[in-house]
Amino acid sequence: MSLPDNEKILRIKHSLEKRVVTLPDGTFLPSIGQGTWYMGENPESRNKEIKALQLGIELGMKLIDTAEMYGNGDSERLVGEAIKGRRDKVFLVSKVYPHHSGLDLIESACENSLKRLGTDHLDLYLLHWRGRVPLAETIEGMERLRKDGKIVRWGVSNFDTDDMLELWDTANGKNCVTNQVLYHLGSRGIDYDLLPWHHEHNMPIMAYSPLAQGGSLRRQLLSDPTIIEIAERYNVQPLQIALAWTIRSNNVIAIPKAVKEEHVLANAQAATIQLTIEDLNRLDEVFPKPTRKIPLDII
Ligand SMILES: NC(=O)c1ccc[n+]([C@@H]2O[C@H](COP(=O)([O-])OP(=O)(O)OC[C@H]3O[C@@H](n4cnc5c(N)ncnc54)[C@H](OP(=O)(O)O)[C@@H]3O)[C@@H](O)[C@H]2O)c1
After folding, report:
1. Cα(169) to centroid of ligand 1, in Å?
2. What is the pLDDT of residues 161-175, one digit of tens each?
3. Which residue's C-alpha comes closest to atom 26 of ligand 1?
């Protein structure tokens, strides 16, 4: 993909501003953000990674997702460097390890993340996945962090429908604002009951690995004739169609990770692609919606 001219960049920014998802507290977020898994681990690619995140912010992909787990804090350190002087333009998300999510450790885990990120608050803090700590305890820890102003809101990750039902029945569980789960055109198990549950409860999903890790989790996304034909019609790449597909409703925020400049631009540009009902029906034929419960796909 050639670098777009200024007019195209303005169009991309405008599309990202308009294609928003609303959190339960009324906050609007562009439906495409940026992932950071594996960033910060290789000193040779550090500058490129920082520039990629900064370009993404300039284009309007303001949500940046990281975790204390990624590179043992190296991803958070890199994000901290990338957002220096730009904190107000970013919606910062980090995640706590399940074994740090009890009342004894969650505050220090959060403070360590804040230090690495060079900020005094997270916009969103997620429980990375469910571990042994009772949900009620993690929720209480999250609520304390919220009251102390260290996080603005909290959510969960890798929660299947039964986990969400349990969360909903736990005190203050309804303060959860999102659930970050694996979702791409080649892995759409959540379309059966988890995504409908989220729709009903007005809580967006955050889709991780929305590009199936550049197609490596599902090669067919790169080679399928239907995707290729649709991509050619929009004059874009097949993975941009896959990304546009994940954000087809206004209830999913996708967080692709990209280091290559052309990938950052391509991902932002996916917000300009409005797939038609006919496109969606054709994609459904090749990548059918599940007709029965499939346990949540996790990587
Ligand atoms: N909560 C969880 O348990 C969980 C699990 C997994 C991921 N995540 C989050 O979700 C983010 C995204 O998922 P992911 O990193 O697993 O995979 P992904 O975003 O689906 O794919 C990333 C890969 O795709 C390539 N790529 C990016 N844009 C592209 C484009 N337009 N065309 C072709 N290739 C492209 C990237 O290459 P380059 O980098 O070379 O540009 C990279 O190799 C993570 O970074 C992380 O923040 C969360």
Report:
1. 33
2. 999 999 999 999 999
3. 214
pLDDT tens digits, one per residue of 149-163:
999 999 999 999 999
Cα(210) to centroid(ligand 1), Å: 7
pTM for this one? Answer: 0.98
Active-site residue set: 70
Ligand 1 atom closest to Cα of residue 298: 3
In this structure, which residue's CA is closest to atom 29 in ligand 1? 263
Distance from the CA of 70 to the center of ligand 1, in angstroms? 13
Residue count of the chain, please give it.
299
| Mean pLDDT, the chain, integer | 97
| Residue 184, annotated as binding a ligand | no
pLDDT tens for 15-47 read: 999 999 999 999 999 999 999 999 999 999 999
Ligand 1 neighbourhood includes 213 CB (under 6 angstroms): yes
For the Cβ of 45 lying below 6 angstroms from any atom of ligand 1, the answer is no
Q: Which domains does the chain have, with CATH numbers?
A: 6-286 (3.20.20.100)
284: Cβ–Cβ under 8 A, 6 or more apart, which residues?
A: none
